[in-house]
TrEMBL record:
GO terms for cellular component: cytoplasm. Its EC number is 2.7.4.3. The gene is adk. Residues 1-209 form the Guanylate kinase-like domain. AMP binds at residues 31, 36, 61-63, 86-89, 93, 156, 167. ATP binds at residues 10-15, 123, 195. Pfam families: ADK, ADK_lid. Pathway: Purine metabolism; AMP biosynthesis via salvage pathway; AMP from ADP: step 1/1. It comes from the Archaea. This is Adenylate kinase. Belongs to the adenylate kinase family. One of its GO terms (molecular function) is zinc ion binding. It is found in: Cytoplasm. Keywords: ATP-binding, Cytoplasm, Kinase, Metal-binding, Nucleotide biosynthesis, Nucleotide-binding, Transferase, Zinc. It comes from Halogeometricum borinquense (strain ATCC 700274 / DSM 11551 / JCM 10706 / KCTC 4070 / PR3).
Length: 211
């Protein structure tokens, strides 16, 4: 199955896609994680504003399409079934995606702006295994320590209030048109993203089962 999960920063794409991938035996393809793993990659020869993905990410801006498209193309080619998260983030990426693959389901996690800010500024991630926590909504058993592996929990560099605001601005400008594009095509399934993680997963899984 080819599943696309859309939503604003903090809507719960990562939380839901990880679980979907494991329960439906799909590859989790996420441009955010891929870019974080390669944030110091030298892209200076490509003549962009910045020389590394890191600088774009820390400012809340999108990394250039040429870099991201290449990552996605390679990852999708290697995957049998997949759940794609964090891409496409603008109309150009959406057009590119149409060229390289077909989709069985497009889901959109709907969450209010106020809730998004609260989720992102309270998020903590494990520095070792990448597991996701929230200081209030999903706290670890022991403060600052990962339940799964004992690693240290840190705040992502782009989860500061200032960068979160910028990411949301970029989302409204660039990514909302992508959501509207799939809605206009009549393929968008809208999910109430403000339920508990389990509640959201039930709705998401129902769609994926039938896809
Ligand atoms: P990326 O990593 O994709 O970040 P994002 O889209 O901003 O999404 P997040 O990972 O912040 O949120 P999420 O929706 O996955 O939510 P999560 O499940 O973690 O991108 C980062 C940067 O990389 C971009 O700014 C850009 O620079 C670059 N980039 C990435 N893709 C790109 C592309 N295609 N083109 C160009 N540049 C690109 O949940 C958030 C928090 O809420 C967690 O703490 C979680 O515990 C909590 N939570 C989750 N679900 C619930 C719930 N139901 N109830 C209560 N709390 C919940
Ligand atoms: Zn861990």
């Amino acid at each position: 199955k080819h599943i696309l999960l859309l939503g604003a920063p903090g809507a719960g794409k990562g939380t839901q896609s990880k679980r979907l991938a494991s329960e439906f035996d799909l590859e989790h393809v996420t441009t955010g994680d891929a870019l974080r793993a390669n944030k110091d990659m030298d892209i200076s020869d490509m003549d962009f504003e910045y020389d590394t993905p890191r600088e774009y990410m820390e400012s809340g801006d999108l990394v250039p399409d040429d870099v991201v498209n290449e990552i996605v193309k390679t990852a999708l080619q290697e995957a049998d079934g997949y759940v794609l998260d964090g891409y496409p983030r603008n109309i150009e990426q959406a057009e590119y995606l149409t060229e390289i693959t077909d989709l069985d389901a497009v889901l959109y996690l709907d969450v209010s702006e106020e809730e998004l800010v609260e989720r992102l500024t309270g998020r903590r991630v494990c520095d070792d295994c990448g597991a996701n926590y929230h200081v209030e909504f999903a706290p670890p058993e022991e403060d600052g320590v990962c339940d799964d592996c004992g690693g240290e929990l840190i705040q992502r560099e782009d989860d500061t209030e200032e960068t979160v605001r910028e990411r949301l601005t970029v989302y409204h400008k660039n990514t909302e048109p992508v959501v509207n594009h799939y809605r206009d095509e009549g393929v968008l399934v809208e999910i109430d993203g403000e339920q508990t993680p389990d509640g959201v997963f039930d709705d998401v899984a129902e769609v994926v089962e039938d896809a």
